[in-house]
Amino acid sequence: MVITLRVSKIKECSCFLLGGFIESWGRGIEKIFEACISDGVPLPEFTINPGDIMVKFIAPEDRIVHRPGKVTDGVFDRVFDEVNTFEKRILDELMIDPGYSYAIIAEHLGISKKTVGEYIKVLKQKGVIERVWNNKTGYWKVQ
User: Which of 41, 78, 111, 140 has a CA-to-CA distance to 127 between 20 and 30 Å?
Assistant: First the structure.
């Protein structure tokens, strides 16, 4: 199983520091490598882009916790059956980063912010996504 995280803004990551998930800035990559080596799992792959860092974790199949009743591929298949192609593209963007703004999604998809807003409204009405917290600091939760 491959888990990919995209970190695009320090402000968004500060919640990890405030929540106690990291103890300080600057040693995270070193600690990730040490933990992977000591646990005998593959080292993550880092891709550095302007404005973000993507971290790809590869989990051995025997380490993956499968829990019935949680989000599964079947749920995503059901959700994607209810949406059109453009809505799916917006959902793909929100899965990369649930905190993406309309402007970022519009830029990535080559459409206007207004069009993104219209599709987001439809996705909310269908019950596919919901907004968590407020518009400025919140994020989109895919149901």
Answer: 111
